[in-house]
Amino acid sequence: MFHKLWFNSFEALTFATVLHYQVILFLAVFVLFSKESYAQKCNLILRGKILHRENDNSIEAAYIWILETRTGAVSDQNGNFIIRDLCPGTYTITVQYLGHKEIRQTLNLTGSTTNQTFRMEEESLDLGGVEVHGHREAVQTTTAVTSLYGEALLQSRGESLGESLKRIAGVTTFSTGNTISKPVIHGMHSNRIMILNNGIRLEGQQWGAEHAPEIDPFLADEITVIKGAETVRYGPEAMGGVILVNPPSLPTSKKHSTEIHLLGASNGRMGNFAASHLGGSEKIKGLGYRLQGSVKRAGNVQSPDYIQANTGMSEYNFSGSVGYSSKKLGVEAYYSFFNTELGILRDAHTGNLSDLVNIIENGRPFTNADFTYKIDNPKQVVLHHLAKIKSHYHLNTDWKLNFQYGFQLNSRQEFDRRRGELNSRPSLDLELFTNTVDIFLDHKLKTNWSGSFGLNVIQQANSNIPGTGVTPLIPNYDMLNLGIYVIEKYLKGPLELEGGLRYDFRTFDAARFVSGELQEAELEYQNFSAFFGGLYHLSPHFAFTSNFGTAWRPPNVNELFSQGLHHGAAAVEIGDPTMVSENSLKWVNGLEYESEKILVELTAYANHIKNYIFLSPTGETFVSLRGTFNVYEYLQADAFFYGFDLSGSYTFSERINGYLKGSIIRAKNLDEGNYFPFIPSDRMDWGISIAFGKNSNPNSDRITIGNVLVAQQKREPDFDLAPAPPAYALFNLGYQKKLQLAENQLNIGVQINNVFNTEYKEYMNRFRYFTADMGRNILLKLNYQF
Fold this sequence. Notes:
The chain is mostly beta strands. The chain folds into 2 domains: 42-125, Carboxypeptidase-like, regulatory domain (Immunoglobulin-like, Sandwich); 145-785, Maltoporin, Chain A (Beta Barrel), CATH 2.40.170.20. It is built from 7 helices and 39 strands. The chain starts with a helix and ends with a strand. It comes from Algoriphagus alkaliphilus.
C-alpha cells in the first residue's frame, strides 16, 4: 500500500519540479558551506595527482606526507589525492611509492586551493617480494568523467554492461526486451558511443538498436564513462562519449591472486559463474599474466503477471593477457572471446496486420508461456574475437613512443521464424573483420606542459555469408579511416587547461545484389574536430570544469543502405544513401562540491548537431510470409540536445549515508519544431545505506534501500506506434556482508530489484509495444578473493 501512495505522490509532483527543488537545496548547501569554509582560518587545500614520470600513468597507493603538520594522504585508483585544513605558509612535501624515487618538494600555500602534479621516477632496487603492478593509462581529460570500481562495481556484477552503467547519472539504456541493452550517454548510443576493451575500440555490428556490446563486464576492475565529445582523442564514433572497460594491471613481480563470483537470480532462474587469476613471475622480473572467464545461463523472463516466451539467453566468455615491463620497454598481448545466444520475444513477430494491431492495443502477449531455458527462433547468435599487441618505449624521461595493433572478428547470425529447412538458416549472417593501428608519442615538459601526437588507422571489411535466402539488410563493404591528432595540456596551481585538434579521412566502398542487379557505392568523408577545456578550483571545496568541442560522424552503413527486414529488431528499416555527415558542437560544464560529509556533482551540457540521423516510425507496416512488421526509416534533421546530471551523497553519521542521482534531457528537432523518438525520460534514483556491523568494522554489514522514479516521456514525435507509457516508481533493496577468512575475503550480497513487483514499461525499450518490463528479481551474489 505504501508504494502506491508514494507513486501517486510522485505523479502529483512532476519530476521536473522534484529536481528543481533538489537543485535549489544543493545550491543552498553550496553557499552555506562555502561561507563556512572561508570563515575558517586554516581552510587551504592541497590536491593533486601522482603519475609515473615515464608514461604519465596514474599511481595508486602512493603516500603523500607534509612534514610540518604530520598529515598526509594516499592516492586513489586514478592517482588523485587531497589534504584539507591547511594554514597559509611554506611546507615540505614528500611523496613515496615502492620501487620509485622519493620526491621531496617545498610548496608555498597562499590561495584557497593548490593543485599539484607529482611525477615519480622508477628506481632499480631489489625490493624482495614487493608487489609492483604494470601501468594502466590514466584518464586525463577536462570533461565529465565518472568511474565504477570497488564496491560499486562489485554490486553490479551479473548485469550487462548497459545495466551496470545505469548506476552513473546521465547514463541510461536503449533496450530490446529485457535481455538486450546498450548504454546511452546524454541521449546518444550505438555508433555515437565508443567502447574500449582494454584500450582497443570495440568494433562489432553496433549500428543495430538490438545489438548489445560484445563484452564481458567481469573482465574489468574499472569501467569509466567520459561524457564529452571525445572525437579528437578517439575518433569520429566518440562524438557522444566514451566507455573504457579496463582489466586489472598486470603484476610485474611475484604475486598471485584469484577471484571467484557465483551469482543466481530468481527471475529467469539465471545462473552466472566467473573466475579470474593473475600472477607475476618469480624468475623473470617484470613478467605478469592474467586469465579470466565466465558462463551465464537464463531462461524466460517474467513480467509481474506473465512469462515472456523465448526470452532466455546463454553466454560464455574468456580473456587472457601476458605482459613484460622494464624501465624503458613495455610489451603486452591480450585476447578476449565473447559468445552469446539470445532469444527474441516471440510475440514481437506477428502473423498478420490484425495480429500486430491487436497486440499493440493489448499491450501484452496473448499467449501465456511456460518457463523454459530453451531458445527457439527468433534469436541471435553472436561471437566476437579481439586480440591486441601493445608496446611502449621510453626514448628518455620526457618522451615515450607507443604502438598498438588490434584485430577483431565479429560474427552475427539472426534467425527468424521460417518454414521448413529455412528455419535452421540465419536470415542475417554477417562477418566483420577490423584492424586498428595506433602510433602516438607522449611528451612532457618541465614547464608544466604535456601532450601527445598520434596517428590512427582503422580498416574494416564486412561480408554477408551466402545461403540465407534473403536479400541482405546491409551490403558488403570495405572501410578505411586515417586520423592524425595533437593534444596539449597545461597544468599550474589550481588551473588545468587542455586543447586538441584532429583530422580524419574515410573511404567507404559498398556492393550487393538486389533482385539480381549489382548495386555499388564509393563514398568519401573528411573533417576536422577540435576541443578546448579547463579545470579550476574555485575554493577549497569547489571545482569547476568546462569543455567545448566540435565533433563529427559519417553516416553508418545501415543508415545509408538498409532496405529490408531487420529480424532482431522485428522491424523493416529503410536507409538513405544521400545522407551526409553529422557535425556537432558540444559544451559540457561541471561543478563539484566536496566536504567531509557532502559530495555533489552537477553537470550541464548543450549539444547542437547538424544533420542528426535518427530512426523514425513511418506508421506503415510490411506484410510477408514471415509476418507483419512496422516500418522505420532513417531521416536527418538539425538537433539540439541539452540537459543536466546531478549526483550527490551525504554522510549523516559513521553508519548512515544517503545518495541521489538524477538526469534531465531534452532533444529538439529544430527542423520540425518537435522532439526526437527514443530519448530517455527524466529520472531520479535516491536511497539510503545503513551499516550495522560491529564497532571495530561497521561496514562489514550494510543494507541499502533505493527508489527509482521515472517520469512519462511527454516530448514525443508527432507519430508513434503507441503512446509513451506512464511514469513509474520502483523500490530496490540490497544487503552486503563482508567476512574476513584469514587473509582472504568473502563478500555476500542479496539484492531485490522491483521489490513490490510493479508492472511498468520503459520508454527506451523497443518492445514496450508488446510487453511489460521485468518483474521482481531476487539475486544472490557470492564473491571470494584469495
